[in-house]
Specification:
Belongs to the glutaredoxin family. Monothiol subfamily. With about 110 residues, this protein is an alpha+beta fold. It has 5 helices and 4 strands; from the N terminus they run H-E-H-E-H-E-E-H-H. The protein has a 4-stranded mixed beta sheet, sandwiched between helices. Strand 1, helix 2 and strand 2 form a beta-alpha-beta unit. The protein is globular and about 35 Å long. The N and C termini lie far apart (about 35 Å).
Length: about 110
């Protein structure tokens, strides 16, 4: 994969406390998994950024290589890959995801 794309993804991940690579936007998710991921983040009440991979095929392919994870959405917290919507759901239900956000001192949404 193109080093520039990987650097761009790394920059996005590194410059946002919480970033979700997803299909669509928070207001108009383009798949059920992305919709689920957004709902979880909104329930947690944390500030987060999103990247619509449907707008950029290079990022869509590149993020899968960046994380070594085959699907989107993908959640990153403080530069670390957390997982997709299935892992997010498991962590949310167990309280682990909220604990992670607290431990990493992620800002709460205003």
């Amino acid at each position: 994969m193109d080093d520039q794309v990987q650097a761009r993804i790394g920059g996005i991940v590194g410059s946002n406390d919480v970033v979700l690579f997803m299909k669509g936007t928070p207001i108009f998710p383009q798949c059920g998994f992305s919709s689920t991921a957004i709902q979880i983040l909104e329930r947690l009440g944390v500030e987060f950024e999103t990247v619509d991979v449907l707008r950029d095929p290079e990022v869509r392919a590149g993020v899968k290589i960046f994380s070594d994870w085959p699907t989107v959405p993908q959640l990153y917290v403080k530069g670390e890959f957390v997982g997709g919507s299935d892992i997010m759901m498991e962590m949310f239900q167990s309280g682990e995801l909220e604990e992670l956000m607290t431990d990493k001192a992620v800002a709460r949404a205003a």
